[in-house]
Design a protein that fits this description.
transport, 8-stranded antiparallel sheet, Oligopep_transpt, OPT family oligopeptide transporter, OPT, single chain, alpha+beta
């Protein structure tokens, strides 16, 4: 690839690679002892691991990627310890190890567990903690006996390019060079920028327009205008801009091309050919294609095409790596057996000390028992054994592939897909096809995926410590700390993101019931509203026109038991506050609810939480609220993978979670056989066509699967990187110390953390706090508030400023390599 570009990444955003690896001469000799496994190092590493882990969770549910934390954590560790008065390379190595180990859990958690929502389950915190911690511990345990063979014996053969880059950063920091200010600047700018549009709503989150529409002539004839079904849009996101810069112009362009296929080719084609249909196609609710907007067409049809392409791309990636996988496992076993046959020296050097093999054996046995017996996991003994066997295999494979091409190109998704396929096929042969079996299959694949991801990262961190002269035993202890501390909070981040964007929406399915009625309930507060027809007529408004404005303020207009209107809220509000709620009418008038009719306190209504699971019902899989008779009244549409993108004119925050959608599709496809395979096969053949053309199908397929609004800012970031590479030279400017790369890492972390905090505010106050800082909402329906919410140029202007800052930093910023003092 030209200009020193890293290889096309599957799951992780690649970090810059060192031009020349260090020779095997530890920076700190084995005979020298320095403070290493310190309490402050473990604490700082845990905090940074949680921060970058949270940002990776956010990215994974948005676009199916994670960001490698090794370089930013190392840079920040050096700067923070130096600010405290002293910095030590071995202590900084521990911080980098803990931080990157914690972040490595994010992909497995954020890619796999949201599939539970798509299978009709909730994300449980204890389940998430056990999956993350057990998978992470399994990855570390399996790497302890492999360290000597893969890291020591094959030094010079397995380069571990990103581990070598991290070692270079640590050495430069020890000698006085670093550029942490760029990361901090990006973090601050990205966080404030994200808060400005996602919290304060000072400008649009997504800018764009439809390219065609239907208008009615004076004779009442519908007439097409423009490119019907086509649309373009872009999320003005600091995280996605940073991702595009880091992955570079080639991958960013291929990903964006997938979005072009979906939104400018497939959706218009489906709209054109389907506009004359008089009956619904694949739509149980009876929606005709001619009545669908582009996003609805995507959700109903293109999503399956994209899923087929993504699954095929992942399998092709795995098949392409098959020779490497087989050789990796064989050589890993050979080196393990060879190292175990040697007699241990009576006194090992500090740099040769591992945790004893008894820890591995006892830990593996304890893992099997814990996985089998832990109630939240619902895993039987056979699946527990399958986890450990597949875990050992894929950890060995992952560690070796990381050594050859780096963790960025490690096909973790392919390994998870392979585990899922194997597990589901075994289950199918045994007749295990119930909803509980699908839950168990996903848990099995998630733990193996986390183990594989963490195993590759662990090998990379051990290589870094090997080069700088760290103590393996202490590194391995630090890895366990990183896994356990991040496991405590990574699941919480996922739950916060989901619950913060979860919306309860009226939805009925006459004659249908849920599969399971749970123990949970939701309380709804009602306020009978004696609406005056005269008051409505005097203001020239109909009751139906008030539903949207009131919904924005947390009030649902519904029909009460007696047929009279009532207001409903999921928050307990004094009747006086409800009566004083102001509504902005289309005419521009502002009117209080009480001016349209008397509001009185009503009774509380309790709904039971139910779940639809399986293929034997026309009701979409998901969570619902039902009455005592089991009739469905509301859908609890999740923030991650939710199927409803807007209601009553209010756009809802949704995280597509493409990898989770893929995993759920595989489970459903094998165990329930309910997929529209014609559409899935279209995606399969699109991916195969791209492979035949010599184009990597996976980033293209991910782009086709995601909304074009997500791939567009990635493309912009890639183009900024292209300009920087042309002006400064790719190999020199985009080393591991590149100012553009560091600023992009800050954009990603800052924007993602701000998004998580906004979601937390939404949950903590049930929306009250976020409404309190919503500037357009506080201003009411005024021309200025509409300008803030609707102006595309206004939003693009802010994004342009963010982009220019990245461009100037990439062009003019001082590289860490230039800042390194002469020896």
């Amino acid at each position: 690839m030209s200009h020193g570009q890293p290889p096309i990444s599957e799951d992780r955003v690649p970090i810059a690679q060192a031009a020349t690896p260090l020779v095997h001469q530890p920076y700190v000799p084995a005979t020298e002892s320095r403070p290493e496994l310190t309490l402050r190092g473990l604490a700082l590493g845990s905090v940074l691991g949680i921060v970058f882990g949270a940002s990776s969770v956010y990215l994974a549910v948005k676009v199916g990627l994670t960001v490698s934390a090794s370089i930013p954590v190392a840079v920040l560790s050096i700067a923070i310890f130096r600010a405290l008065g002293r910095s030590n390379i071995l202590e900084n190595t521990i911080v980098q190890t803990v931080g990157s180990a914690g972040e490595s859990l994010a992909f497995g958690i954020a890619a796999a567990l949201p599939a539970l929502l798509l299978l009709g389950y909730d994300i449980d915190l204890m389940h998430a903690f056990l999956v993350a911690s057990l998978g992470g511990v399994l990855g570390v345990l399996m790497m302890i006996p492999l360290r000597e063979g893969l890291i020591v014996h094959e030094h010079g053969k397995l380069t571990y390019p990103e581990g070598t880059a991290a070692a270079d950063v640590l050495v430069v920091g020890e000698e006085g060079g670093t550029n942490a200010r760029t990361v901090v600047l990006g973090f601050g700018v990205g966080g404030l920028y994200k808060f400005a549009y996602a919290g304060l709503h000072l400008f649009k989150e997504v800018v764009g327009t439809a390219l065609g529409w239907v208008k009615t002539t004076a004779a009442g004839v519908a007439q097409r205008v423009g490119y019907t079904g086509g649309s373009v849009s872009m999320e003005v996101s600091p995280e996605l801009l940073g991702v595009g810069y880091i992955i570079g112009p080639q991958v960013a362009s291929i990903t964006f091309a997938g979005g072009v296929l979906s939104y400018l080719i497939l959706i218009p084609l489906i709209t054109f050919f389907g506009s004359g249909l008089q009956q619904p196609l694949l739509q149980p609710d009876g929606t005709l294609i001619r009545d669908m907007d582009p996003d609805t067409v995507r959700d109903a049809y293109v999503l399956y095409i994209g899923a087929g392409a993504v699954a095929t791309g992942g399998l092709v990636s795995l098949l392409r790596s098959l020779p490497t996988i087989i050789n990796a496992f064989r050589r890993g076993l050979d080196t393990l057996l060879a190292s175990r046959r040697k007699e241990a020296a009576p006194m090992l050097l500090r740099t040769e000390q591992d945790l004893p093999i008894t820890v591995v054996l006892a830990g593996s046995a304890l893992l099997v028992l814990t996985i089998w017996l832990a109630p939240p996991l619902h895993v039987n003994l056979m699946s527990a054994l399958l986890i450990v066997v597949c875990g050992f295999f894929f950890v060995t494979v992952s560690a070796r592939i990381t050594g050859e091409i780096g963790s960025s190109s490690n096909p973790i998704s392919g390994m998870v897909v392979a585990t899922l396929l194997l597990t589901c096929l075994v289950y199918l042969m045994l007749g295990w096809t119930s909803a509980e079996d699908r839950f168990m299959a996903l848990t099995t694949a998630a733990i193996v995926g986390i183990a594989a991801s963490n195993g590759g990262t662990t090998a990379q961190d051990l290589k870094t410590a090997f080069l700088v002269g760290g103590t393996p035993r202490r590194q391995q202890i630090a890895l366990f700390v990183g896994v356990l501390t991040s496991s405590l909070l990574i699941g919480l981040v996922l739950v916060v993101l989901n619950r913060g964007a979860t919306t309860i929406i009226p939805e009925t399915h006459p004659g249908q019931t849920v599969s399971v009625v749970g123990d949970q309930t939701r309380t709804q507060h009602t306020y009978p509203w004696g609406v005056s027809d005269q008051a409505l007529a005097a203001r020239g408004v109909k009751l139906a026109e008030l539903k949207g404005p009131l919904w924005k303020q947390g009030l649902e207009v519904a029909q009460g038991p007696g047929g009279d209107p009532e207001l409903r809220s999921w928050n307990a509000q004094p009747v006086e506050r409800v009566a004083a709620t102001e509504v902005r009418l289309a005419s521009g008038q502002t009117v209080k609810v009480s001016e349209l009719g008397t509001v009185t306190p009503g009774r509380e209504r309790t709904w039971r939480v139910g779940y639809v699971r399986g293929a034997d019902t026309p009701v979409p899989t998901g969570t619902y609220l039902v009455d005592e008779g089991g009739a469905i009244h509301y859908v609890v549409d999740p923030g991650i993978g939710g199927r409803i993108t807007s209601y009553e004119g209010v756009a809802l925050t949704r995280y597509p979670a493409p990898k989770a959608q893929l995993f759920a599709l595989i489970i459903d496809g094998i165990l329930t056989q309910k997929l529209p395979w014609d559409l899935v096969l279209v995606g399969v053949f699109i991916a195969l066509m791209l492979e035949l053309c010599g184009v990597s199908s996976l980033p293209f397929a991910v782009g086709a699967y995601l909304p074009i609004s997500s791939t567009a800012p990635i493309f912009v970031g890639g183009m900024v990187r292209y300009v920087v590479d042309k002006v400064r030279g790719g190999s020199a400017a985009e080393s591991e110390f590149s100012p553009g790369t560091l600023l992009s890492s800050g954009y990603i972390a800052g924007g993602a953390i701000a998004g998580v905090l906004i979601a937390f505010l939404e949950i903590a106050s049930d929306g009250a706090w976020t409404r309190a800082i919503d500037i357009p909402g506080l201003l009411g329906d005024t021309p200025f508030s509409r300008f803030l919410q609707e102006s595309n140029p206004w939003g693009l202007g802010f994004f342009a400023v963010l982009t220019v800052l990245l461009l100037l930093t990439g062009l003019r910023g001082e590289s860490g390599a230039q800042a390194r003092p002469a020896k």
